Amino acid sequence: MKKSVETSVKYLKPILMATALVAVPACSQSSVNVSDKEAIGKIVHEYIMENPELVMDALVAHEENQNWDSINEVKTAIYDEKRDVVMGPDSAKVTIVEFFDYNCSYCKRTTDWVTNVLEKHPNDVRVIFKETPILDSRTRTSINASKAALAAARQGKYFEMHVALMNANRLTDDRIDELAEENGVDVAKMREDMEDPVITEHVENTMTLIRKIRPFNGTPFFLFEDEFVAGASVERLDEMLNKALSN
Fold first, then answer.
1. I need a surface site. Which of 153, 157, 182, 236 has the fewest CB within 10 A?
2. Reduced to 3 states, what is the DSSP secondary structure of residue 86?
3. In 3D, which of 81, 101, 49 has the Cα closest to residue 220?
4. What is the pTM of this model?
5. Can you identify the CATH homologous superfamily of domain 77-246?
């Protein structure tokens, strides 16, 4: 802990010294010499060492600012991507963005939560679904599952296919076709659309997007207007949703 504080002091000290100097009346700033600055620096250093929570608070605030800066820089791509599937009215009070992978066990845990939210708040909640097959290098099926869902969307069957894929395991080609057929999707048409470069590019663009979102470190990742939830904590999701609805 002490090493961390010492390192942080190195970066915070110039800022705090500048603040201390600004506090000196303008008429007397010319009289602040090198020894005065060294004395101020010593005081600042000792104060921080005695109150390390100040350092931690500053680092947390800095981290949060960087996270939101990265999100705001790609806000249009997050919220206004016309190829994304969206459920809920444009006039909804709350917009939730979900990044997910169909092979992610944690994503599967939050599927019921998303479904229930849409059912309970049909006029107040809007969900943007971001196909994010980050596990494909291991599973070799995540990208195909995402493409199948997007292809099913062209037949008006996205959500049915989405839920079916989330509730299934071992998403082989045959299994994906079975799920599609069970949910009224024209499998031949779905397979044809899965080869459409537009769908491939859509998925690739989302994969590029997540590399620009600093706090993203895996799926599921939920974005509210001014909050994000990384992980499958339903309690945290409920907390963020209730807060957003109350605002």
1. 182
2. strand
3. 101
4. 0.77
5. Glutaredoxin (3.40.30.10)
